[in-house]
Amino acid sequence: MPGKGPCPLILVRPSRSSVDDKLVVLVEKLPPRLAVTVHALLHSEDGDFWEAFGHYVSDDRGCVDVTKDASTGGSYDGVEPMGLMWSMKPIPGSRPGLRLRKKDVHTPWSVHISVYQQHMDGGFKDTVPLACAVAERWFMAPGVQRVNITENGIKGTLFLPPGPGPFPGLLDLWGGGGGLVEYRSALLASHGYVSLALDYMTPKITGDTAQHVGNDYFEAAFRVLQEHPLVSSERIAMLGLSFGTSVALGMAVYSKVIKPKCLVCVSGSHIMPVNGSLSDVFAEIKKNVRNTRYDEENRVIWRDLLLPIPDDPCKKVDVGQIQCPVLLVVGEDDQNWPASESAEDMKQMMERAGNGHLLTVASYPNTGHLIEPPYTPHVRSSNFMVASSRTKVVSLWGGQTVPHCQAQEDAWQKTLAFLEKHLYSTRE
Questions:
Q1: Residue boundaries of the structural domains of the chain
Q2: Alpha-carbon Rg of the chain, whole angstroms?
Q3: At what angle do helices 215-227 and 243-254 cross, to 10 degrees?
Q4: What is the pTM of this model?
Q5: Among 61, 99, 247, 263, which is 20 to 30 Å from 328 by CA?
Q6: pLDDT tens digit sequence for 103-113
Q7: Other residues' Cβ atoms within 10 Å of the Cβ of residue 352
Q8: Among candidates 352, 369, 365, 373, which has minimal Cα distance to 416?
Q9: Residues whose CB falls within 8 Å of the CB of residue 395, separated by 6 or more in sequence, listed in order
Q10: CATH superfamily of domain region 9-138
Q11: Which three-class secondary structure state does DSSP give residue 239?
């Protein structure tokens, strides 16, 4: 190709976008019917490189349109407009057990997209591309404000949408890994919600045991939202992931302070001691530690720690008392929590109590535990630090890449529609 014809050109539109927006990737000015590889590369904040690539053949005009043309190989097959994002994996030779997560939401993921001659499966860093472009992928939209919160004894980060408000509020609860995880709250604020990412399982918050946080901590966080001048105090939801689901359900039923307008519960369970603090929950889980399993690669499987679903009502949240709409997002191949079994038991409990109409279940086959925002990579297993003991393991999360990533996209759209209906609409 050198010296023959115009230089190839790669276009990425938009060049700056939210992580839940789709991209258009076009390659132009190629020779007709040329085999090429379109490659995406991301350098994470942890210093690791992630990549994805597809094999294409230019059309009679010398063009490749990733949104319409089929990949015949690489890290994904077929017509996959966002395959360059969701099929990313660590490059060969990377450290084991990696998971891609955004830490600093003030900066984007910068994704370098290149086109190479021929169908390649490796050796990208040693090959000169025909053309390159950069796509910025943001969790925090322009105008969103990030505010550290330390009042009332809580620690978290508040994300405020641009504009005068008042806005609906969201209390965002992550799971057993602990720490302050902000990227989902930043993304929700970009969609018009005042979102509080709460830190509740870090030793700085909970003491060395990381177990004694009680209802008053979550109630204080809920009040921070209620009392904020940009929040409509009657329109506050809770969003729980994994262990955060147990907390959200428990607070919705038993707290006299927390009265959420609706709940979104992702990859979680209602199994926990009634009115228990975190120490009660951990004690209950430890009773079943003998049920821990390991796969052939010595990855830990925790889903059996809460099985079988108990008949004793004192060991699970009485979801029959829930008085607000609930969306359950369930991965049917969840290897970390018994999400499917819990969802079925919750459905039965709520139907018996006469509030089954409040429950919506979005259940996805071949989908694992880590149901993240759309177009982010599926991670079947990764290193995991247990917050309660500060021990490091490799956890099996489950899921198969293509159906899992399809589920992430669908679940996110269902979540946004659910929140819009119950927090923004004037009619239920």
A1: 9-138, 145-424
A2: 23
A3: 80
A4: 0.93
A5: 99
A6: 999 999 999 99
A7: 10
A8: 373
A9: 299, 300, 302, 336, 381, 382, 383, 384
A10: Acyl-CoA thioester hydrolase/BAAT N-terminal domain (2.60.40.2240)
A11: strand
